[in-house]
Structure formats: C-alpha cells, structure tokens
Amino acid sequence: MHTFIFQTLGVDLGRKKIKIPDTDHSVEMLMFDSSGRDLYRDCLPRYWGTPHLLLVVYDVTSQNSLDSVEKWVILARECLPEEEREQRLGVLFGNKCDLSDRRVVSPKAGQLVAEKLGLEYFEGSV
Fold first, then answer.
1. How many domains does the chain have?
2. Which family does it belong to (predicted)?
3. Of 48, 70, 50, 46, which is closest to residue 58 (Cα–Cα)?
C-alpha cells in the first residue's frame, strides 16, 4: 500500500464555522496552513496578518522539523504588536505519532521546545 503525503506549497486557507455549545453563537475560524520551506519565509507574514492563535506542527520522524520550530514561532510573533508577542496563545503539535518505528523526536524533546517558547504541547497523527 502506498501512502501519499501532500505538502503545503505557499499558503492554504481553511475556513470553518464552529457553533459554541449551549448558545446561539458561533465563531468563524480561519486557518492559514503555511509551508515550512524557507523558500516562502519572507512572504508568509503578509498572508498571516495578526494571528490570534499559533498552531505549529512538526514531524516527530524528523529532527530537522523540530529544530526549525523556533524560527517559525519567532517569525509569527514578529507579526504581532510588540506588547503581545509573549502573551499570545499557542500550541506545538508533534505529528505522525502513528509512525512509531520511524520516530526520532521523543515526546520529552518536543515538550522542552514547547516550554521554551511558551506553547502548550500535544502529539497525535493527522
């Protein structure tokens, strides 16, 4: 069986309306899925605008993926007003946990990076 992996090139926009339970209200979530390739680094902040939440996903089968997390978090925080850069909510997500035989980044290593950057930490497979 072949597994196909589709990498984001540039920026993909996702939009989802989410109903708030037990209310008549809903929120609209806009997600900008940005490529992790350095080729797009300079143009991405124009697409991001001022993010309200930061979700950074890295690949647990690639140490390089985790090593690049900090530079992307710094770049995203530069889009924020200076007084908000350390206050904004964020999550670091270790992806591809189902590939346990290829895993090279331990949960502890991911957790340490998240703590250093002031992010919550989760793992899973999407």
1. 1
2. Belongs to the small GTPase superfamily. Rab family.
3. 70
